[in-house]
Amino acid sequence: MSVEHVSMRLIGDYARGDTQLAADTVWALEAHLETCAMCRSRLAACVATEAPGIVTLVDTVRAVLEPQLDAAVRMPSRRYRPSWVSAWLTPVMAPWLAMTVAVVLMALLLDAAGLAPLSGASPMVLIAPVLPLCGVAASWSRGLDPAHELTASSARAGLPLLLRRTTAVLVVVLPVLLLAGWLTGDMTAAQWLLPSLAFTSTALALGSVVGVTRAAAALVATWGVVFAAPACAARRVPLVLQSDQLPVWGLLLALGIGVVIARRRAYSAL
């Protein structure tokens, strides 16, 4: 494939359904076809000559669906959904994000009632570093998203879609945590914001190997067992959230981002 357009040989192999084409080649070709009208025209002409059976099938399907599509176009839509919504959000994220906000409110209520498990610190200290992982896990979950198969099979799936949905989660969760941290005044934003971003980047990095949902769940469990539970039992803030540990979290964040960039092609197969 050239830098600007697809070669006619590759278009012909794709039109004929050549099974010898590598998966990453097919993905790159389909992604290019989405944005290149010239290559789509060449593909249409190639299909007409190389695979007439596909043309016949498409014409048959169009003849059956055209009356239904015309009726659907004439029917006024009751709900308008901007095109960018599906690119950034998935319906299953809504209850998870609502649950995230509810958890923050519960932590604030516990703090206001004086029932905090940590002496001199809010429950926000325990939940803030890993709270975004709940939404991140839900944003790319095979079991929770009824449209996962359709989304994952599209040419633009993979890392770009995952990053958009992760950004949507952070845009909702981080302001809530910032407001909660300001209300409690227990920690500076950097003490939990940097760990939150580090956990998120680590979840995406590990997700290229085991899946984002599994990676996020494993990190939450590790945080709870190794750090949160002992700190709660000792009635103190976890040592890893002290100010002198911020460079370590920054390094972990940078490593996570580096792994995501290095393994960016692996996300198209998730």
User: How many helices in DSSP terms?
Assistant: 13
- CA radius of gyration is 24 Å
Estimate what percentage of residues fall within beta strands.
under 5%
Integer average pLDDT = 76
| Total DSSP E strands | 0
N-end to C-end Cα span: 24 Å
**Poorly predicted spans:** none
Net shape: elongated
Order of helices and strands: HHHHHHHHHHHHH
Question: Largest sheet, described in full?
Answer: none
Report the helical percentage. Answer: over 70%
**Count of separate structural domains:** 2
Alpha-beta classification: mainly alpha
Characterization of this structure:
The chain has helices at 8-15, 23-35, 37-50, 52-74, 83-88, 93-112, 124-127, 132-139, 148-152, 159-184, 189-210, 212-234, 246-262. By secondary structure, it is mainly alpha-helical. It has 2 domains: 8-74, no CATH class; 83-269, no CATH class. The longest helix has 26 residues, at 159-184. The model has no long low-confidence stretch (mean pLDDT 76). This is Zinc-finger domain-containing protein. The chain crosses the membrane at residues 84-109, 121-141, 162-183, 189-209, 216-234, 246-262.
Question: Which key terms come to mind for this protein?
Answer:
transmembrane helix, membrane, 270 residues, transmembrane, single chain, Zinc-finger domain-containing protein, mainly alpha
Give a short synopsis of this structure.
This protein is mainly α. The chain is built from 13 helices and no strands. The chain crosses the membrane at residues 84-109, 121-141, 162-183, 189-209, 216-234, 246-262.
